Amino acid sequence: MAAQEKISAERLGGFISLEGADGCGKSTQLALLSKYLKDNNYAFSQGREPGGTKVGEEIRRLLLSRMDFKINDVAEVFLFQASRVHYVADLVIPALLNGEIFLSDRFYDSSIAYQGYAGGVNLDFIKHIISYATFGLSPHLTLLFDVDLETSLEAIANRQGGDRDRIEVKESDYHRRVIRGFRRISETYPDRVKVVPYVSNNPQAMHERAVSYVEDFLSTRNVNKKK
Ligand code: TYD
Q1: At the N or C end, where does the chain have fewer CB atoms within 10 A?
Q2: In the chain, what are the domains?
Q3: Is 84 in the pocket of ligand 1 (CB under 6 A)?
Q4: Closest residue (by CA) to atom 14 of ligand 1?
Q5: Digit-coded pLDDT (tens) for 26-60
Q6: Whole-structure pTM value
Q7: Which residue has the least CA distance to atom 19 on ligand 1?
């Protein structure tokens, strides 16, 4: 598919992305949500960004684990989008065309919050190349797991064995801007982006809130159930 070609999968499947600053509990929520979809017999697939494909996972390693490289801010934007092109073309679009739900662990809002609002790269530039990387595709529903700075920094500090990636080691002000950036995105796109506030020690309460948004959304879509 040519990068300039816009796809129109708007009426097919259901594309749900999960977003939030580091330490927002997203991984736990993703596991609970995929169990919910499975238990309710929905046909769905899932993936993570950056990564999800062979090329994408290599780019992920370069972006997050190669702490010995200093990556230029603009190059960082391009690398996230390079991973995204493969992810969208190879995983997301085929699933949606198949009438499935696609659950995405992060999507382009992360580039806007991290590289844009936190990293200071021009937002119009980022949005422009996102539109190429995604073939113009947007999630139908985005769940934003909103977390406060203190909880986010604490979670980063407690990463197993001090195993922090290249984004996590950035200064606390960067993480503050990520959190604010995500909030700005939710205010800008209130129809698409639904906020699930962090609840300390209660992932189930967060899950129930997330499911209520997912159920509202799915009631408007013609998604497949397993036969
Ligand atoms: P994630 O997989 O959520 O981290 P973890 O493995 O700790 O759960 O996300 C990887 C990191 O990449 C995270 O810090 C956010 C960052 N990121 C960006 O900066 N820009 C992007 O476009 C994406 C998709 C992720």
Answers
A1: C
A2: 3-218 (3.40.50.300)
A3: no
A4: 167
A5: 999 999 999 999 999 999 999 999 999 999 999 99
A6: 0.94
A7: 114
